[in-house]
Amino acid sequence: MDKKIIFSGIQPTGNLTLGNYLGAINNWKKMQDEYKCNYCIVDLHALTIRHDPEVLRKNIINLLALYIAAGLDPEKSNIFIQSHVKAHSELAWILNCYTYTGELSRMTQFKDKSAKHADNINSGLYTYPVLMAADILLYQTDLVPVGEDQRQHVELTRDIAERFNNIYGQTFKIPESYIQGAAARVMGLQNPNSKMSKSSTIPNDYILLNDEPDVILSKFKKSVTDSENVVRYDVENKAGISNLISIYSAITTKSKEEIEKEFDGKGYGEFKVAVAECVIDELKPIQAKYKELLNNRDYLESIYKDGAEKAKRVANKTLEDVYKKVGLVL
Please, which pLDDT band fits residue 114 given cuts at 50, 70 and 90? Predict the structure, then answer.
């Protein structure tokens, strides 16, 4: 049987966090043998906030290097830059014409980002989910690995695809969300009730994939817990320590029960150091490979150019079908 098709991507808006790694990339690399994977650097989405062009260009290449350093294999997965495949923008415009403003107004991420960027509530921020729908639908995607915070966008993608198919006949495959495991939502170290994010204004709230070992250790030691000093998983009452248990579990593959037993009678100080050390050990080879790749720009260029050509072959076929069905002259 043909392998199911996966599509996912990350914005190149700065250094990736431990949350990006454990919640996305670490799971993506496990899918490479079972699925036909498309992993995109969604640079067009990054334009919804004000940015420095030179920094964005650098971030795009850095993210490509991190993808590969963290385990994405260009021989197994297609890795490419969104803006290099023009079909993404072209299909997004057409899909805008089949998306209702009421649907976009209900998107919780638009509300959240509007609150954070009150001085720049632009139409791109508003129609961002339509471009995301185009990203997914171009590749006749079966499954979209997402966290709970992105499930709403996949549901909108399904609605748009079904609406288009009902009007013009079978055109798009209807994708499904692929919600990842328990470690998919790594929370902030200072605010364990919010997802770990590189956009946080508190540096100690997140671990960057290129943080030095002493920085990682310091951030974990300063992480917010509670006064009980008992290593026990209880999200409702012990959000901070539960987050650390989830991180430790994701890296060591030990169950939460095994971790509780391992640290029975031991305090938070000892546990925080153990979590920090396992994170340092996990990131060490990734950081080494990342530095090596950044010194091989020709190789990285060959990956994104080859990836774009492969993506175009699939995306342009879908776009041509859409053009025909809506009445455009080819």
Answer: low
pLDDT digits (tens, 9 = 90+) for 208-229: 999 999 999 999 999 999 999 9
Positions annotated as catalytic residues are 113, 195, 198
- Residue 271 sits at φ, ψ, to 5 deg, of -70, -40
Quote the tokens at residue 260.
Answer: 């509780």
Beta strands in 47-155, from DSSP E residues, in sequence order: 77-81, 143-146
* Rounded-to-integer distance, Cα 241 and Cα 249, Å: 12
d(CA 237, CA 176): 33
* Rounded distance between C-alpha atoms, residue 26 and residue 9, angstroms: 13
In this predicted structure, what is the pLDDT of residue 184?
58
Fold observed for domain 5-185+297-326: Rossmann fold (3.40.50)
3-state DSSP call for residue 8? strand
**What pLDDT shows up at residue 121?**
77
CA distances (Å), origin 229, targets 152, 264, 270 = 37, 10, 10
How far, in Å, CA of 276 to CA of 278, rounded?
6
**Which has the closest alpha carbon to 48: 132, 148, 151, 147?**
132
Q: Domain residue spans in the chain?
A: 5-185+297-326, 210-291
Alpha-carbon gap, residue 67 to 52, rounded angstroms: 22
Superfamily holding 210-291: Tyrosyl-Transfer RNA Synthetase (1.10.240.10)
Do 177 and 144 meet the contact criterion of CB atoms below 8 Å apart? Answer: yes
Q: 260-279: per-residue pLDDT in tens?
A: 999 999 999 999 999 999 99
Task: Report whether 19 contacts 197 (CB < 8 A).
Answer: yes
Question: What are the φ and ψ backbone dihedral angles of 41, each rounded to 5 degrees?
Answer: -95, 105
Residue 171 pLDDT greater than 70, yes or no:
yes
Note the pLDDT of residue 276.
97
In this structure, what token pair is assigned to residue 31?
A: 């899918």
**Per-residue pLDDT at 150:** 79
Predicted local confidence at residue 220, as pLDDT? 97
